[in-house]
Design brief:
The chain is α/β, with parallel strands linked by helices. It is 43% helix and 12% strand. The longest helix is centred in the middle third of the chain and has 26 residues, at 166-191. It is globular, with a radius of gyration of 21 Å.
């Protein structure tokens, strides 16, 4: 919308971004003393982590969306716009994940290196669910093999910014890529511990479809791909019926979605005479706290997989107590 564009443009102009594009004598944003770390701003924590691994001590990474923050609904504050304006390079997910930041990111792209890390992924490998009306499913990080494709984008971007250390970025990118391939193999081994009939993942919103596709789980979300639309009573009842009928032992809450959404589902299942457990909390669209294992991409994936496998790969009798069964 025109109004939004003007607002965004005005905010960026105020922050000094637009002046750079007009060839004014403004200094490069964020450039400190020679040898000082490059100022990088990202959106979600998963991207911050890859950039930090590839960039090492040569980058200072600032993620706008911390633990528990929902990227679908996140709006850039005046402070965020200032941080973006001060960055030397910006990385975001793309595929409309950062839906409410679209205008800001588009505008920023005219003035400084701004990269959607998912641009490197072959469109044919992206999910294009009908209910998402012509857009792709943005939650690519749950297929570890797909997420690995973001590493070369970041290596190339940092090398362009800092050609003198390109070999270093390439080496760190290669080593992190190998770590992700080992993680992918580990997820496959763990997923195979769940009996095929129980490989059903029920969560608050549809973040896990890439996970399901890559590792053989059927995925059912209470909300759609974006959290912008709240789950209605009909959705809850429909999903509750499926869970009770198929005796799915556990459902999961998500770190960036209110817990009550899943608790309402649990209550609806119970009213149908089946008791489903909440199998634990999964990180979906945000990492855990910095300094904890879940504060890294690898640690977050491991936590999710251990939680899912731990809740589903147990004998059904122990996992679910049926109430009022005939
Ligand atoms: Zn999401």
């Amino acid at each position: 919308m025109r109004g939004d564009f003007l607002t965004t443009g005005a905010a960026l102009a105020a922050a000094g971004v637009l002046a750079l594009g007009t060839g004014c004598a403004a200094p490069d944003p964020g450039r400190g003393a020679p040898g000082a770390p490059f100022q990088v701003v990202t959106t979600i924590g998963m991207i911050s982590d890859v950039v930090a691994r590839v960039g090492g001590e040569r980058v200072a990474v600032r993620g706008l969306m911390g633990p528990g923050v929902d990227p679908h609904l996140f709006k850039a504050s005046a402070g965020d716009v200032r941080r973006l304006a001060g960055a030397q390079v910006v990385f975001f997910n793309g595929l409309h994940l950062e839906a409410a930041m679209g205008e800001v990111l588009e505008e920023l792209d005219h003035w400084k290196p701004t990269y959607a890390v998912t641009d490197s992924i072959d469109r044919g490998q992206l999910r294009a669910p009908a209910e998402f009306r012509g857009n792709y499913d943005p939650h690519v990080w749950f297929d570890v093999g797909l997420w690995e494709r973001t590493v070369p984008v970041i290596v190339a971007a940092l090398s362009r910014l800092d050609p003198a250390h390109a070999a270093e970025y390439a080496a760190r990118g290669a080593s992190y890529g190998a770590e992700l391939r080992a993680l992918d193999a580990w997820v496959r081994r763990r997923a195979a511990e769940v009996p095929p009939g129980l490989r059903v993942l029920v969560t608050a919103h549809d973040a896990f479809n890439y996970f399901g596709r890559a590792y053989g789980f059927e995925v059912m979300g209470l909300q759609g791909i974006s959290t912008a639309a709240e789950a209605g009573t009909a959705d809850v009842q429909r999903l509750a019926g499926v869970i009770a009928r198929r005796r799915i032992p556990a459902i999961f809450v998500e770190s960036s979605i209110p817990r009550r959404t899943v608790e309402a589902l649990q209550a609806a299942v119970r009213s149908r005479g089946f008791r489903v457990r909440i199998g634990g909390s999964l990180f979906s669209d945000a990492l855990g706290d910095a300094g904890t294992p879940e504060g890294t991409y690898v640690g977050m994936v491991r936590h999710n997989v251990n939680t899912i496998v731990g809740a589903l790969a147990v004998p059904t009798a122990a996992a679910a107590v049926e109430v009022g069964d005939e």
